[in-house]
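user: At home tonight, take the chain set out below, taking as long as you need, and be ready to discuss the fold:
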Amino acid sequence: MSSERDSETTFEEDSQPNDEVVPYSDDETEDELEDQGAAVEPEQNRVNREAEENRETFRKDCTWQVKANDRSFHEQPQFMNTKFFCIKESKYANNAIKTYKYNAFTFLPMNLFEQFKRAANFYFLVLLILQAIPQITTLAWYTTLVPLLLVLGITAIKDLVDDVARHKMDNEINNRTCEVIKDGRFKIAKWKEIQVGDVIRLKKNDFIPADTLLLSSSEPNSLCYVETAELDGETNLKFKMALEITHQCLQRENSLAAFDGFVECEEPNNRLDKFTGTLFWRNTSFPLDADKILLRGCVIRNTDFCHGLVIFAGADTKIMKNSGKTRFKRTKIDYLMNYMVYTIFVVLILLSAGLAIGHAYWEAQVGNYSWYLYDGEDFTPSYRGFLNFWGYIIVLNTMVPISLYVDHRDASQNNHSKTEQVDFSWNTFADGKLAFYDHYLIEQIQSGKDSEVRQFFFLLAVCHTVMVDRIDGQLNYQAASPDEGALVSAARNFGFAFLARTQNTITISELGTERTYSVLAILDFNSDRKRMSIIVRTPEGNIRLYCKGADTVIYERLHQMNPTKQETQDALDIFASETLRTLCLCYKEIEEKEFEEWNKKFMAASIASTNRDEALDKVYEEIEKDLILLGATAIEDKLQDGVPETISKLAKADIKIWVLTGDKKETAENIGFACELLTEDMTICYGEDINALLHTRMENQRNRGGVYAKFVPPVHEPFFPPGESRALIITGSWLNEILLEKKTKRSKILKLKFPRTEEERRMRTQSKRRLEARKEQRQKNFVDLACECNAVICCRVTPKQKAMVVDLVKRYKKAITLAIGDGANDVNMIKTAHIGVGISGQEGMQAVMSSDYSFAQFRYLQRLLLVHGRWSYIRMCKFLRYFFYKNFAFTLVHFWYSFFNGYSAQTAYEDWFITLYNVLYSSLPVLLMGLLDQDVSDKLSLRFPGLYIVGQRDLLFNYKRFFVSLVHGILTSMVLFFIPLGAYLQTVGQDGEAPSDYQSFAVTIASALIITVNFQIGLDTSYWTFVNAFSIFGSIALYFGIMFDFHSAGIHVLFPSAFQFTGTASNALRQPYIWLTIILTVAVCLLPVVAIRFLSMTIWPSESDKIQKHRKRLKAEEQWKRRQHVFRRGGSSRRSAYAFSHQRGYADLISSGRSIRKKRSPLDAIIAEGTAEYRRTVES
């Protein structure tokens, strides 16, 4: 045990996972996991040890080399990889992305390969080859070729249409343009033409085409603001900053064209917020980190232009590394179908073998002694039996069903129609879309009778870190968090508009009057303080502190005399009951002397060389006291309409809902309550809680293990006592800890020590296996524990972790998983799940293009699953059961016929009837049922979500149902054969002729079969339309029309060898006796089915049968209304924290002036000036 612990230890054994950190460096990258280095020979130990001692860790990891403005550098032999035999290509990917599966050359072979992986398709291909052998076949080749080509063609067309859509999206992205340095100038180039080492220019609102090192920008200190919605789903801005040397030296076109920097960095990986590298330029090295990298998929915001050096392109970019591999998905029924087809193969082989043996025996006993049966071939009976085995394989091929493979307004606003909206025309900065009805509040603001009302909105306009920009004369706020942006916008709508800021001033429009305030200090937010403050000097010379923060920290710092304290507390309780995010606002008048003394301490703490943050927090505490409370704000997470109702219905349908998000824990928990996934009566478990439970379970399992452990049946022990509702909230860091996914380090001795003997190698292998088994057991225990919870929220997780959680559920629960997401960070998860759903929204189309289904709003998921998903399952199950039934009924007639033809593999039908049976005569009704059938209406499906459970339990299609269809088909085939046989034994027609020939017998069976199977689909249909009725009777009419045409003398004259049933139909079907035989046969086949269905619905009705029975009463009842969600919980005292910026440091940027734009030359002027310098250089 000790040796195991010594050889495998975590980086920080004593440290606890950090809930606030997204573990983007979660473990190995996907490439590292797939490519674990092979063991080096023992004689290399000394060389390895010396290399390890002399090589820095950085140099070992950073093997990716990029040379600026030098494409030929990346085409050197050392950067070439062998792709196929002697064909080599650069390890540096081009910038073209590919999400499609096929191209013009690979479509046909790859699509056919995928289709022939289906057992039935491959079987029919082999069958077609067998039919080309004349000694075997008794059927024409076209009887198999026509259905096979039809199925392959329809599936190929469907796949082609899907792939063409992917091609169009890829072309649209690859043909986007940006400016690239070529021949010393910036020139327009397509994204797909960009290569590693290129210097590019991006403008405001441009998408970033590749992972790029920021060199300079139009902002002070070369700041660059980016929106990362496609990466992490967050719409708030993040800032990047270039190196000081590149900011100073690489602003102009000529200097960028002459830039010859050399970058060494890590290999391409999927870690979104980690980057390690070094820039070598002008004989100096400069360290690079993630704050200097612009990632593909982000959007440039609030920055006029920026320049960058391409580091990773195309498939090597981090967003593409997180996309995962495109997986070919198949449904559960598809997998089950393959096993059923294998079962049919076995039955087919057994039947063919039995009939072949029968033929060999018949030949030995009868055939050899019957001179009139001599065919000119002197084959032995056993050889004739062997040939007939393959003949029956062909004749009975239709047992295998090839055709199956075609594959925010409040409720309180309801009364506002009678109340006049507030007119905001007096406020030129107001949002015209705002609907507000409280005239009293507007009167208080405009009159100024209550000064604290104005102070309230002034605080919202001044105390923040929002950046402002003007676009076409309109104010555009860029906030570090959505909540800050919402509050500043609210202040603007009520007359207090934030207009501009500099390093030490802020300008506010107060009811139309512009006033500029001096900013003396910004007291930044952090997760411990839970508040931020700003100290300003008014134009009159007064000094005030304005503060906003969580009520738990504000109330501790209030002055004793606060008349609105209790009133605000009552409001906070109401807000908390609605799970709104609350914020308290307060202010304080500061004397000049007091401020000067405090400012000295503040400046000293600001320049402290050690523990600066702690020193600043201590100084902040001294000034943030004796505050006067102004009031409180509340912000609701604006969920899409219908989210709580959708989650409630899905839960009633026994669907487990897990939330996987990159948001911080507090935000994720707020959303959980807002969408009613979490409720007040739930006990919430966190990572530290379940870690202890899982550790105890692992110890118990280890103690029970031993020599006899494998003989003891596993016992399922619940983690929690039954009867209590629980939810699990776990962060990505805890997820790595619990699932043993943390990156490990090995001691240098063990890392360099290679096994010298076979015993050492065996012990090391066993140790590795034990660790893998322990990890697997731990993961299984986690999935079991999580499944006992009513809700699971995984927050602060990476795209890779999202996919890992989905994969764990698939692996250990064997459950069907559906993943729904709206951003590029969800692509890997969407591809991993059985069903991937993309929401087309603000975060781009990456999720949509990688999904199986897409729609605009989450609430549509309930219709996708509870209505269309359930209908589709019922239709598919009926479709499959019916197809098996009709094919067995059709094919097994040959089996009964073989007993009367010497087991000679002769068919009981005409060849053209066999060819067209599945294609024309019996296909349209079942296809329409598969498209239109519904047991209950969509409204009733949504009203009774429990109907969905039938599909989850596979009750409508399984092996039992398969064998029922098999028996039904066998009995039908017996009736179809033996009733006409009995009728034909001794028959004389009205004209004295006996129509008891083989061809008339075949027509009688075929006619009875077509009428029976088409009426059977009518019995299976729950939702009747004119189209259904027309298809059933139309298919029967089509059969008779084609049959009379094929049996005419005219077509026989044209094709005498292909149409040999001349006059049979007209001769046989003019006999009433034949029609009576057909009617009797159909009645015997269908009446027992009607009786059994009637008894089943009367004695053992299903849930849908009960609803169908009472559907008129249910429709007459009052329409089911969705539950209103605004005042949905009145007894909660839960506090939901305000969402400040996720990224500390905005206040420092503002107060230091690094983010304040000075007056600079516009981009056009810089380009013109650079062009002039370039021309002067050329002329000289």
The chain has 44 helices and 34 strands. Residues 860-898 form the longest helix (39 residues). The mean pLDDT is 78. The first strand starts at residue 9 and ends at 10.
